[in-house]
Amino acid sequence: MWTTKTFLTKTKRGNIIKIVREHYLRDDLLCGSAACNTCPHRDDELVLDSDPESICALFDYPHYLILDTNVVLHQIDVLEEDALKNVIILQTVLEEVKHQNTAVFQRLLEVIGNKKRKFFSFVNEHHKDTYVERNPGEKPNDRNDRAIRRASAWYESHLSINSAVGKFPKIVLLTDDEINRKLAQEEGIVCCTVKDYVENITSAIGLVDKLSKNVIPETCAKDALYPAHLTPAQIHAGVRNGKLHQGTFRASRYNYLEGTAVVNGYEKPILLQGHIGINRAVDGDSVAIEIFPEEEWRRPSDIVLEDKADDPGDLLEEEAELLKTVKPVDKSDDEITPTGKVVGIIRRKWRQYCGVLMPSTFPGATRHLFTPAEKCIPRVRLETRQSHVLASQRILVALDSWPRNSRYPLGHFVRALGPIGDKDAENEVILLEHDVPHARFSEAVLACLPPDDWTIPEEEIKKRVDLRSECICSVDPPGCTDIDDALHAKPIPGQTADGLDKYEVGVHIADVTYFVRPNTALDKEAASRSTTVYLVDRRIDMVPELLSSNLCSLRGGEERLAFSCVWEIDENANVLSTKFHKSVIKSASAMTYEEAQIAIDDKSRKDKIVSSLRILNALAKKLKKKRLDNGALLLASPEIRFQVDSETHDPVEVEAKKIMDTNSMVEEFMLLANISVAQQLAADFPQCALLRRHPAPPPANFASFLKAAKQQGFELDVSTNKSFSASLDKAVIPGRPFFNTLLRIMATRCMQQAQYFSSGTKSFEEYYHYGLACPIYTHFTSPIRRYADVIVHRLLAACTGSDATHAELLDTRAAAALCDNLNYRHRQAQYAGRASVALNTHILFNERVEIDSAVVLSVKRNALQVLIPKYGLEGPLYLPSDKFNYNEEEHTQTCDDVVLKTFDELTVRLSLDSTNLQHRKLAIQLVKPHIPGFSYEGQEQAETMEVIEIDDDDVPEVKDAKKRKEKTVNKGNKKKSRK
């Protein structure tokens, strides 16, 4: 049988149309219970036990649980525990959860898919006895609650009539909705709150800790500390009339009472200060902001402020401490920033957070403060009866709500990760804190892989250009196993019309898309991960190892599938023609940068490999000169790599990365390939090409940087990237070789992030890549470790007729969502890599003290932010206010005749400060210049060190060919350390 659904809707033109849909109902849908003797179940469909054991003291009879939508949304951590079994999930609930929270929906599907858990999904919306129509004027939520009650009553009746056992299982409806619970009781349905049910489960230790705390309505908060948030309707009206602005809140890492939000129409981010100004926003939340009149705008605080109090209670006493340091400033001050306050939350972006419990001062206390590992996240109040066990553990906590009368948000315990300081637990913290998907690949994903002994089929070779006879080689960091690019070069007979010699140059990229087909489980997993993540001692692959380190890796002496970009280039590095094609290659050699450099420099070598490398090297130098002449920037970021122990994988020393001509050689041709592919895609797919842009930084970003450079005697011209590049080249101080590198490091921090985007969403002028000084750019050269490159390969294959296109490639909305995820995952992978460096530096300093060089990055009211080049780390060197005088106009700190300013070189003592187990950090003490009563006066001798210019993916792709894997080196057993 069927019924019809009729509803009215308005078109974009304002017309009202009537839509009628048929809704099919059945009477043969299975109930899933082994107690039923009527439904024609197969054995594998009998999910629910015939005589389920009651684990709750409130109900001494066998029963099944039915959950309402909010129980699933708010208590998913409880539902994932093995204690709860024999649960019925209604289709109504599944659809609501999918609509409201896709992450919870996926977690629920995993629970349902676990046969041991005995969760049964019942299609109540298509059963003739459980389907309910929506009444006129009835809210959708009320209709769904009614549908849940109807299904609960039907199950009770169905099992009582059709049970094959004498004592049939009953139904218990779990709901925290008081009105729904009251109506259910009136209809004779047994119901219970989740809290009451869980608190009466005696067999599950710690399950109560996982209960989510109920949200207290804004209007009901007693003793409110914070202003009430505006309602969604008020926010919408305010944004529409221009009184409010929408932005994403970003908390400061240096001052917990300060944050910013970027909004349209303002060049600088909006400054948000104090508890009231931030008004319970958490880093990443989408917020509504009211911007103050210009006379109330301020400059950002120049104080480093941490939330250190044991437990200040529900008070906001630090407000005055912050605001006394930030006074309204003259409008002519270039550091003045638009200032405002958060008036509403548009969308929370809360996740689970790692950290530790703070010790309670009261024995036996159940309420505790949780300190997150991420400094941008506020501390959290939670209840647990396991504090004696959890005190020594890294734990995972979820946020539930932030009432107006609570200084901190409320949350609940999710699970323990391992002992504090344990390396595996700390690495797990890094991956979770940076939202890095790192679970083992599922069976569905692994089922998409070819067999281990796969070889290239002959019919596939016939479809491709056979380049196995070409002298192709790869050049990569030592220990690299995921080799995704190789090159070749050879002279072409004859000359150009201008009498110049010609060369054929090819870049050959692993053809990952041959194995990763669209919309497969493997493809979806790769899209979700988006990038390979490189930690110091491990690698989190985007695709399974069979592909990343074997079948797709362009290893020496093995036949591999590739996508080739081949140019005809003259001796002045002018591109005469470009062609793209799928190919089969056999790399003659897989070399390290050092091996390739030695080969090039060895004049006695005349073989084909060396000849190819020398051509490539000579052309690369000319390509680089052209880029720099065109305005490309050479920036830098602090980065190091560790030598690790072959058995423990603990760091034993750090070493500087050696930069050779061969690094630049590979880089230049990867850049050229990316630009060539971008041009082709934009021509053939003007609306849906996946490109990468780097916006020019707004002038305001340079304000403090230019002031600091001026203190050193340099007037930098940042009006264009070309003038900026020229200014940086000239900013050299004889005798201070690191100064120019430091200048470039600080310049990097003035940049905006490079972004993936779909060509149809931007004008051509917005395609420009500021750092590379090129009008169009993309990522094509690393499909093993970047999903963006996979999409680019598919588009290019469609351009060349090598493969068919598919619908999602041409869907601009899907492309925009994909780019958002790519940008997010790329950024999180960078942060995870840096966190791994910090962790291993702390391990290195466990029983170590050093005296090293440092450089001042910025001057704060109560500290110097300093960089330790040897370790690539930065941190605050706190200055006592009774010894130092701060000049907020010049940003200097003075003590007697010692004046400290940005770019100053210092000598500092480094040791590990473990007094706060949550935020272990390098303790930085000043050694030189010597200030009596403040500087450290021990006897340690400074160690020699070498500092070199290095870069980072965080900046524009100035060194795009760089591999993150270069950070991990194990001299004793390189192959083992790569796993």
UniProtKB/TrEMBL annotation:
<dbReference type="InterPro" id="IPR029060">
    <property type="entry name" value="PIN-like_dom_sf"/>
</dbReference>
<protein>
    <recommendedName>
        <fullName>Protein DIS3 homolog</fullName>
    </recommendedName>
</protein>
<dbReference type="GO" id="GO:0000177">
    <property type="term" value="C:cytoplasmic exosome (RNase complex)"/>
</dbReference>
<dbReference type="Pfam" id="PF17849">
    <property type="entry name" value="OB_Dis3"/>
</dbReference>
<dbReference type="GO" id="GO:0000175">
    <property type="term" value="F:3'-5'-RNA exonuclease activity"/>
</dbReference>
<keyword id="KW-0963">Cytoplasm</keyword>
<keyword id="KW-0255">Endonuclease</keyword>
<keyword id="KW-0269">Exonuclease</keyword>
<dbReference type="GO" id="GO:0003723">
    <property type="term" value="F:RNA binding"/>
</dbReference>
<keyword id="KW-0540">Nuclease</keyword>
<dbReference type="GO" id="GO:0071034">
    <property type="term" value="P:CUT catabolic process"/>
</dbReference>
<dbReference type="GO" id="GO:0006364">
    <property type="term" value="P:rRNA processing"/>
</dbReference>
<dbReference type="Pfam" id="PF17216">
    <property type="entry name" value="Rrp44_CSD1"/>
</dbReference>
<dbReference type="InterPro" id="IPR050180">
    <property type="entry name" value="RNR_Ribonuclease"/>
</dbReference>
<dbReference type="GO" id="GO:0004519">
    <property type="term" value="F:endonuclease activity"/>
</dbReference>
<keyword id="KW-0271">Exosome</keyword>
<dbReference type="InterPro" id="IPR001900">
    <property type="entry name" value="RNase_II/R"/>
</dbReference>
<dbReference type="GO" id="GO:0000176">
    <property type="term" value="C:nuclear exosome (RNase complex)"/>
</dbReference>
<keyword id="KW-0539">Nucleus</keyword>
<dbReference type="InterPro" id="IPR033771">
    <property type="entry name" value="Rrp44_CSD1"/>
</dbReference>
<feature type="domain" description="RNB">
    <location>
        <begin position="464"/>
        <end position="802"/>
    </location>
</feature>
<feature type="domain" description="PIN">
    <location>
        <begin position="63"/>
        <end position="182"/>
    </location>
</feature>
<dbReference type="InterPro" id="IPR022966">
    <property type="entry name" value="RNase_II/R_CS"/>
</dbReference>
<dbReference type="InterPro" id="IPR002716">
    <property type="entry name" value="PIN_dom"/>
</dbReference>
<dbReference type="Pfam" id="PF13638">
    <property type="entry name" value="PIN_4"/>
</dbReference>
<dbReference type="Pfam" id="PF00773">
    <property type="entry name" value="RNB"/>
</dbReference>
<dbReference type="InterPro" id="IPR041505">
    <property type="entry name" value="Dis3_CSD2"/>
</dbReference>
<keyword id="KW-0378">Hydrolase</keyword>
<feature type="region of interest" description="Disordered">
    <location>
        <begin position="950"/>
        <end position="979"/>
    </location>
</feature>
<dbReference type="GO" id="GO:0005730">
    <property type="term" value="C:nucleolus"/>
</dbReference>
<dbReference type="GO" id="GO:0016075">
    <property type="term" value="P:rRNA catabolic process"/>
</dbReference>
<comment type="similarity">
    <text>Belongs to the RNR ribonuclease family.</text>
</comment>
<keyword id="KW-0694">RNA-binding</keyword>
<dbReference type="GO" id="GO:0071031">
    <property type="term" value="P:nuclear mRNA surveillance of mRNA 3'-end processing"/>
</dbReference>
<feature type="compositionally biased region" description="Basic residues">
    <location>
        <begin position="961"/>
        <end position="979"/>
    </location>
</feature>
<dbReference type="InterPro" id="IPR012340">
    <property type="entry name" value="NA-bd_OB-fold"/>
</dbReference>
<keyword id="KW-0698">rRNA processing</keyword>
